[in-house]
Write a structure and sequence with these properties.
Elements (H helix, E strand, L loop, with lengths): L2 E10 L6 H11 L5 E11 L2 E11 L5 H10 L4 E11 L1
Antiparallel strand pairs: 1-3, 1-4, 2-3
């Protein structure tokens, strides 16, 4: 099965959010056919750090991107999500 990788910028609700706990909560909340390839941290401003999550998901599964975004938005501590890129791998 072909897969796609999506880079998502995830902004936490504030500087007090523990990024390691946030990473684990995101990983646990994703649909079963989806996995995290890696995370990067991107400083924004005034101590706020965004997570860049590289998410692997099946290409043929319908509405998978919507389900991934919804799952991440439902994680406590997540403020906003921005899709940076989607590529086939």
């Amino acid at each position: 099965m072909d897969q796609v990788v999506a880079a998502l910028r995830i902004l936490p609700e504030g500087v007090e959010v523990d990024l390691n706990k946030l990473k684990e909560a995101i990983k646990v909340g994703l649909p079963t056919s989806v996995s995290i390839h890696k995370y990067e941290e991107e400083p924004i401003a005034f101590g706020l750090v965004a997570l860049i999550a590289y998410v692997l998901m099946p290409e043929k599964e319908s509405d998978i991107m919507d389900r991934v975004e919804k799952a991440i938005k439902n994680v406590k501590g997540v403020s906003e999500i921005e899709v940076l890129m989607v590529r086939r791998v």
